[in-house]
Amino acid sequence: MVKKIAVIGTGYVGIVSGAGISDFGNKVTCVDILEQKIQSLKNGIIPIYEPGLDEIVKRNVKANRLDFSIQVSETIQKSDIIFIAVGTPQAENGHADLSAIRAVSKTIGENLNRYKVICTKSTVPIGTGENIIKWIKRSMKNKIEFDYVSNPEFLREGSAVKDFLLPDRVVIGANNDRAFKLMKDVYRPLYINETPMLHTNVITAEMIKYASNSFLALKISYINEVANLCDIVGADIHQVTKGMGKDGRISPKFLHPGPGFGGSCFPKDLNAFSIFSKDNGVELRTIEAAILTNLQQKIKMTNKMETLVGGSFKNKKIAVLGLAFKSNTDDVRESPAITMIQTIIDNGGFVNAFDPIANRTMKKIFPDIDYYTTWEDACKNADAVAIMTEWNEFRGMDLLLLKSLLKSAVVLDTRNILNPKTLLELNFNFDNVGRKVI
Ligand code: UDX
């Protein structure tokens, strides 16, 4: 029988998960308390930029497997499985703000009318599952049986649809077989394709999410430090990572040096993991080092830029190309471009900003800098250019044209996407991350 599924929260995780689960053949209703958002979704307007999401939503709405509603209570009552996908932002004290999770748990409890599986997709602090169970039980009118499951997401912005439909693994933290089997059925097409399905208990699933993200962030901070060392001794970080990545135990993934990681997950998750461990009397020193290294990496990029423009940003106009925290997204949260822009402005310089899609989002943080609609316009008469995001259109930029547009031929390539030999041949004064040509 086709399962009826509710996804509560139509943010990034909610929409992608709802669309993906419906694509697996389930009947999904995505709910939110924001009426305007639901109305837009009903009209086919997706509030976030995510390649392929538009298409998968349209396809499943048309097939009657996916719809949107503001009727939270009603949707809970008619569903067999309820996914919680509301936001868990970082509060002032570094702890996750669980007020939305708490409110949703209460609504679920109030509307439990028969056995259901309640499953959390949002990233919640380790141990939250126990609290959610308590909050649901506390608001239940009659004693009704339910199972709680932790099913963390491992979606990357920019490739979230692909990540959802073709995951490396699905982690299902369920404390009994009944709930595990029901969840396995939600992911039936993946199960048939032999995608690994890991059945753990709830707390272990919660731990897997933090341990995975923290490990990836650790890898990036590590390689950034090695790249900085390469800078000093004249080794080529790309050859170093190639050599390292051939070792199957290391793998070449997440070994790309850059201006430091950003986004909505890594910085927040690392902080939460570190605080959680301290609260439990354990110090994760490697994670703390990764956090610190990342902050320093962002600052290091601004120092490199300052050095390239002669030691001071005063009255210098810098073209900042790429504002998003990585390519294929309009998300600027914790983006290294923010540190770069802030430092330039604070030190008396000016910024010409350009991003293929993130100008709009960055305008909310820096409304007073100049934004351009092409990289060529942003570079006109600038004293230097800083490439902050690895957009394909920067990889292929005509360097002779770039040189003719700039007031002086100065480039900081924080993503190592330009060929250093060509920059050298064209007499650019340039720097990158661990690829000095000696
Ligand atoms: C991440 C995780 O990958 C995902 O599993 C989790 O669910 C959410 O957080 P996301 O934040 O979308 O996804 O981006 P990701 O592609 O992982 O990149 C994170 C940051 O690391 C970006 O700033 C990126 O530029 C940087 N990065 C990534 C590097 O600097 N080097 C690398 O080799 C890889």
Structural summary, described in words:
The longest helix has 32 residues, at 202-233. The chain starts with a strand and ends in a 7-residue tail after the last strand. The chain is elongated and about 75 Å long. Strands 3-2-1-4-5-6-7-8 form an 8-stranded mixed beta sheet, sandwiched between helices. It has a 6-stranded parallel beta sheet with strand order 11-10-9-12-13-14. 46% of the residues lie in helices and 14% in strands. It has 19 helices and 14 strands. The protein has helices spanning 12-23, 35-42, 53-62, 72-78, 99-110, 128-139, 160-165, 177-186, 188-192, 202-233, 237-245, 266-279, 285-308, 336-346, 359-365, 375-379, 392-395, 399-405, 420-425; strands spanning 4-8, 27-31, 66-69, 81-84, 116-120, 146-150, 170-174, 197-200, 317-321, 350-354, 370-371, 384-387, 410-413, 429-431. The chain has 438 residues and is of the alpha/beta class. Helix 10 packs across helix 12 (266-279). Bound molecules: uridine-5'-diphosphate-xylopyranose.
Q: Could you give a quick summary of the protein structure above?
A:
This protein has 19 helices and 14 strands. The protein has 438 residues and is α/β, with parallel strands linked by helices.
